[in-house]
Predict the structure of Anhydro-N-acetylmuramic acid kinase.
Amino acid sequence: MLAVGLMSGTSLDGLDAVLCEVKGTGVDTEIKELAFETFEYPMKLRDLVKKVAENRPVSIAEVCSLNFELGKWYADAVINICKNYGIASEELGFVASHGQTVYHIPHERDGLVASTLQLGESAVIAYQCGCPVVSNFRTMDMAAGGEGAPLVPYSEYVLYQSAVKTIALQNIGGIGNVTVIPAGGEIEDVVAFDTGPGNMMINAAMEILYDESFDKGGAVAASGDLIIELVDELRDHPYLKMVPPKSTGREVFGIEYTKQLIETYNNYAPEDIIATLTWFTAYSIVYSYREFIIPKYNLNEIILAGGGVHNLTLVEYIKELIPEIDVFTQEEKGFSSDSKEAVAFVILGNETLHRKPSNVPGATGAKEKVVLGNVTRPN
């Protein structure tokens, strides 16, 4: 069966679309990547998503429109990747769309219930593409008492389980998240949680200080020095000390927090701020391993994925902070860092259509395994 997976993450650097052939279910799943493309975020949509996600004043009319505008953009991406491969979108068995997370409340707080909101209307995608759409993956896990994140551990177990190695799969998107697959373990043994910021704070600082959307190759960070006072402040961030399962997002490590730090340390060179924020992403990852993973598991290797692997300074910081463990990128293992999460949602969507659960309670904190996502049929 042919399927397209769509992923637009919290870093807002584009929409990843992957065309795959998928067979089987569960640990017997076979998946082959046929095509991959990243579609640049239209400026209007990106600005409005940031406005909503940063909890700035916005009308309900804008949110309503944004949901359908994103759906149309997603549908166009599906049609384009299919056309470029030489097929029609109607030939797809399904589209798996994560949607755009605009707000995530993993725990009850300040009178608000635990909840999550992803936009990108599935009916628009289903109608325009002429195939079923699986979407809204997080909500059923939250209904079952979980945090609705992280969701990729199921696919990682399917693809990377090993009888002899304990592997940590570290994704570095807007937020960083890790999945630990114990050697010879079952799905129930998998542990996963958000380690803290990924590219989010670095990207926000680059926009503010350099009017650039990201630090290409980590070049700016490489030219700067660490700000010791800022290092000390970041090391004390309360999220780091929270015990898993846990998840976070733009509401904690977004532009407002980054702005506050930049204003506080505005007497330092911009490249020093970028270097320190890059170091903090690496530190938050390694701190999580030393505090919550290494004491419990004989960790053999770490595999990095996501847009953060293109930041060479970030990767080097990680290696320097945990020299005793072998650190690889997805590419060094023969996989793609960029398509990983989109492929994950193809796997999750496939399970949903076969009415099989694909959350990992050990990762999300859910009371039980549940079937994820809503299925929207074409007209």
User: Anything to note?
Assistant: The chain has a mean pLDDT of 95. The chain has 15 helices and twelve strands. The radius of gyration is 20 Å.
